[in-house]
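Box S2. Input/output pair 1.
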Amino acid sequence: MPKLTVDGVAFDVPQDKRLVLALTDEAGVDQLHACGGNARCTTCRVEFVAGEPELMTKAEKDVLTARQVTGVRLSCQIRCDHDMSVKAISRFAGSGRKDSGKRPEDAVQPQPVEMVAK
């Protein structure tokens, strides 16, 4: 069972659970995910402290590149398959949004057809 450390506090996370869901379910973080975890809005951003995956889904790379966003990853596109430490930087509190977004599905969406270098 991987360990997820969020803002210095560690949690056990089920193997291969989506990071966005681990943040909300296990860590109790009010993580944004406005597009429902489909790699479209970039509201589910996290900063890695340690354990950043070397690969990312093509969908994640495409949206980060299109929006010219660097230094962050999309928690909706990452599976917890090893220990990692993140800063939760996209939270509902103070966002001005009416809610965090529709709960993302258990599996990464869109289905990762290709993994690419970050």
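Box S3. Input/output pair 2.
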Amino acid sequence: MKKILEIGLGIVTSVGGFLEIGSIATAAQAGAGFGYQLAWAVLLGTICIAFLVEMSGRFAACSKQTIPDAMRERFGINFYVVPLVVMLGVSLLVLSAELGGLGAALTMATGIPIPVWALPVALLSWGLLWKANFSFIENGVSLLGLVTLVFAVAAVKAHPSYSALAAGMIPTLPHDDRAHYWFVAVSVLGASISPYLYYFYSSGAIEEKWDESYVAINRAIAALGMGFGGTLSIAVLILGAVLFHPHGMDVDHYQDLPKLVTPLLGRPGFWLVVASLGIACLGATLEIALALAYLVAQGLGWKWGENLEPGDDARFSLTYTVLILLATLPCLFGADPLKLTEISMALTAASLPVGVLPFLILMNDREYLGEHTNGPIGNGVVLVISVMSLVLAVVSIPLELIGS
């Protein structure tokens, strides 16, 4: 019974933690710009992150090691520095985008500009990491994130064309504006396949002392949790396709996001979107900062753990403190959070193979996993989608920059 409850809680928190500013903004832009045509990007991204989350939980449960620690052990510290630097650079931009999204939610609620909120939201995020334990970060904020179900409710009320949505699940060439089409597709993939999510998940499995008896539970959480989260992203895309696309409207600012819901749910819809944006960004900020601190501390062999007192793992705590401070600077100096989100999601997609390929090697190593190594389907799905994301990013990012 205890493990059945853990499955339920894990699925609920996965839903609450999946939809963050990258998923909301890119799915809205995909629907607004191209109707249902980019639904396939959400689908592929959701499938890939479900496989990666399942693999990361299985690796932790069966090997009793973290991914960074095993990567350093298997490939050596000189190799590990490469994915470490790439992940830190790209994810720091994502962290800044999440802090900016939280500031944008507060701006919509109060009218006070985002830069004014930069330091308060950074202090709030840091304070929660400093005082809270892992269960609070994983379950508490993520449960609040269930307010994002407002997008699903609004999508049903929008009466979408389900046949057009089904057709959009099959990749097709763009009808026009090809450069922007592929750039948005890459951004959607990057938002869905967030590396921090599976690093955070795997580290949490270690913090909660999972063993091989959790393999089936882990599979259920990954499949159902990520699946429901992907459904919420599709709901946002539907709203963009129904309410924005026919009128030639685009998502140029965060202030445009409530318009996805208010025509259907009225003034309460505005406040639900503001709450969704704020809570989702706060949750993602905490998870990204922790995931990056895990990445550094585990890879370098430091003592780590969100369940420890900050004084007991000082270098781990200092790492997330410095990362939050650095990520706050673009918001403090007036960077546009939506533009930051767009480019950080595209760069995330471009960088996927750097972390995914060595992880796949680990997942096929019997010294770590014994009989629980990957099968050909998992290897193939993750490899193909990751490489495809890289290729599309390399092609589309320069074209988008030239076009803008």
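Caption for Box S3: The chain has a mean pLDDT of 88. The radius of gyration is 20 Å.
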